[in-house]
Specification:
The protein is α+β, with helices and mostly antiparallel strands. 26% of the residues lie in helices and 26% in strands. It has an 8-stranded mixed beta sheet with strand order 1-2-3-4-5-6-8-7, with helices on both faces. The longest helix is centred in the first third of the chain and has 16 residues. It starts with 8 loop residues before the first strand and ends in a 9-residue tail after the last strand. The relative contact order is 0.15. The chain binds coenzyme A. Coenzyme A binds next to strand 5, helix 3 and helix 4.
Length: 182
Amino acid sequence: MKFAPLHKLTTERLVLKKIEKSDSETLLFLRSDKTINQFIKREKTESKEEILTFIKKINNGIINNNWLYWCISLKDNPTMIGTICLWNFSANSKVAEVGYELMPKYQKKGIANEALNRIIEFGFNTLNLESIEASTHKENKSSRSLLLKNKFRLIDNKKKDSDSINNILFALRNPIVKNDIE
Ligand SMILES: CC(C)(COP(=O)(O)OP(=O)(O)OC[C@H]1O[C@@H](n2cnc3c(N)ncnc32)[C@H](O)[C@@H]1OP(=O)(O)O)[C@@H](O)C(=O)NCCC(=O)NCCS
């Protein structure tokens, strides 16, 4: 399965599109702000140079079929308000992990939910994924609630995220994929 070029996706209020250099200021905030990162274990990206390198790495990773990474913006304003990605694809490209983050001003408006809905639809209907997973800190209430609202189930039969023992794993199965066990 080839991912590139990145599909531009739309929802009622949002456009999901490729990340550009012009998104660097928002990305810098998202990847360095303490509150946004309180439940995310990742290296902070603290300078403009590091962010520009990160953007290059992200967009090269899409071309090289490693992941898909979208900038979330409102339909009537091109400014980045968050990101959503599918990454950590299994070797057969049938399982991927979803990740998301939103600028504080845009949280609690159902925007993450709207973006996740579209990515689930794209993942299942276009990429033919069998399952989408999400690893989230057990105390990350907003993220857990977003996943549960979208019918993700907590799975405990899989080894926990080795990066963080505080993370719990959720999964959503593509309803049209036959379950071998049944
Ligand atoms: C995780 C994160 C993206 C969730 O964002 P969010 O805005 O809370 O999620 P949703 O889009 O589902 O919004 C839900 C809230 O919007 C409210 N809402 C307002 N208008 C709405 C609308 N039109 N439609 C749906 N919900 C709406 C809902 O009632 C709900 O409020 P509640 O949580 O008080 O019940 C956000 O908290 C975040 O960016 N966190 C930092 C990064 C992070 O931790 N990422 C996850 C790593 S695993």
